[in-house]
Specification:
By secondary structure, this protein is mainly alpha-helical. Helix content is 75%, strand content 0%. The protein is elongated.
């Protein structure tokens, strides 16, 4: 055997491509893609015909191949820069955010939020049943032994609305009966505390779903217990209907938002506990995407509930009118979320 060192192998040199021929072979595809992207940028993807929608991803991949070849060869920099710009523009139209900020907001309310809520209908039903069961339990506990009220409702939330209060005193806290001054101020404080309490329940129900959903179950159950305990106090004084009317105008929206937040937390907890073939973290992240959409919408619902509460406390005094508004809001939310929707045309390129 010879001890001579092996001959060094020369490094491969980049293949030279004739720029004119390269342009002639692919320029028609680039021009068509450029024209389609320009039309979408100026107007909307809806202006494209079906053939153009189907061709756009193929033209994008062709342009990417041309860009890769141009970079690997000795083609001029101007062509490389043009293809980079063209591929970037096409990418954002195919896979980027859909249109302007206003278009994204419109898409969220028109399709994304209702679709996310529909996908959580089982978890939402579970949150509803848990709330009702806990409310019944809280009601029966306080009616059987009023001492339970003090173990369920914090003093800051009760503010004198406890089993020792008189019927007239409780009725005065509901407003709309000619009370003013200090009574109105007390009502404002109570309403603000109640809204803050419910908002915290909603946020934590979603955020703590990662802990296998256990804190979410406890929070939803506790919210039901507090509701049942308060109803028991007012019903015990014979003004349960008055309280229900006061609560209905904003409570249907507010409680619905809490249940949706709990449903999102349930979905994350179930995905984390039972990931299937996926990694536990990947399953939780996937569930969290849809849950985040629902939670963002729940924040909107809580804001609407706050406006309704302000209107109900200051301008709507008739109990029947308050109840009618609350019922109309509930029906409106149900139709908005669960009414079947046709698939929008124009997303085929995305």
């Amino acid at each position: 055997m010879s001890d001579a060192a092996p001959m060094p192998v020369a490094a491969p040199t980049p293949m030279l491509v004739n720029a004119s021929r390269f342009r002639a072979a692919h320029e028609a595809d680039w021009a068509r893609l450029d024209a389609l992207v320009t039309r979408v940028e100026k107007r909307s993807v809806r202006v494209l015909a079906d053939d153009d929608l189907l061709a756009m991803p193929l033209l994008y991949r062709t342009a990417l191949s041309s860009l890769a070849a141009a970079r690997a060869t000795s083609l001029d920099r101007a062509l490389v820069a043009y293809l980079e710009q063209l591929c970037t523009r096409a990418y954002f139209q195919l896979y980027g955010p859909p249109g302007s900020a206003w278009a994204q907001v419109g898409r969220f309310f028109r399709r994304d939020w209702p679709a996310a809520v529909q996908g959580l209908w089982r978890e939402t039903l579970a949150a509803l049943l848990l709330t009702v069961a806990a409310a019944l339990a809280g009601f029966w506990l306080v009616r059987a032994d009023p001492a339970w009220f003090y173990g369920i409702i914090p003093d800051a939330m009760a503010q004198g609305r406890d089993p020792t209060a008189t019927a007239d005193g409780l009725r005065a806290t509901l407003g709309g009966h000619g009370q003013g001054g200090g009574r109105e101020g007390m009502l404002a404080v109570f309403a603000t505390f109640l809204f803050t309490h419910n908002a915290q329940i909603a946020i934590f129900s979603f955020a703590l779903g990662l802990a296998f959903g256990v804190p979410t179950v406890l929070l939803i159950a506790y919210n039901g217990l507090t509701l049942g305990a308060i109803v028991a106090v007012f019903a015990g004084k014979g003004i349960g209907i008055d309280f229900a009317e006061w609560l209905a105008i904003h409570g249907t929206t507010e409680l619905f938002a809490i249940m949706l937040s709990g449903a999102a937390g349930f979905r994350i907890g179930l995905a984390f506990a039972f990931p299937g073939r996926r990694a536990r973290g990947d399953a939780a992240v996937e569930a969290g995407r849809g849950g985040a959409v629902v939670m963002l919408g729940a924040v909107v619902m809580l804001a609407v509930a706050g406006l309704l509460e302000g209107i109900g406390r200051q301008t709507v005094t008739a109990g029947a009118t308050r109840a009618a508004i609350g019922a109309a809001m509930l029906v409106g939310w149900l139709l908005y979320f669960y009414l079947p929707r046709s698939v929008e045309r124009g997303d085929g390129a995305r």
